[in-house]
User: What shape does this take?
Amino acid sequence: MGDPKFSRKTYDTPSHPWQGERIKAEAEVVRAFGLKNKTEVWKAQTILRNLRKQSRDLQARLRTGDAQAKKEADALLAKCGRLGFLASDANLNDILALKDEDVLSRRLQTIVFEKGYASTIKQARQMIAHGHIFMNGHRVTVPGYLVTRAEESSIEFNPASPFTDEMHPMRISAEQAAANAAIKAKAEEEQAAAEAAAAKADAEEAGITIEDGAQ
Assistant: This one.
């Protein structure tokens, strides 16, 4: 178990320190989600890696008719649904399709920004760290806390925070919150279109047609 005063690392570092494409991609994620450093990216990747490993192992056990695997699969899917990674009707294959962004989007910092409590993703982190955010009636000062679906609706300003005043100069306006939501929706739509186009191109290159998929 180890000495409780010396906690173990909760993430795995990249196998190779100098990979240009990976470094560039990680820097873009850090900037997009307002992260402190790449350690937070690696934590999300480790969470995702563990979920994928469990999914693959369970699928292999289910093919052998393991009854216990069915219970564990249901528990894993329930956990992913509870954390907001997947929809309620998802299956084990959907876990394999998860991306780092699906985990990072459930961080308290991201949700505070998306709810319109902060004008920028960096301000959301500062507000959480300084104790301006309450969740379930308690102050939460960990920007990387993974918010469950049940907890999401309880996020609010600390009653003692000056941000409760709608005239506070640092409060985001309703128009700006709507604009932020529109920008995010457009970015997600463009990403989905790009992924669909890439998948279509790969299928055409491999000689796969729509008729093949229907069969």
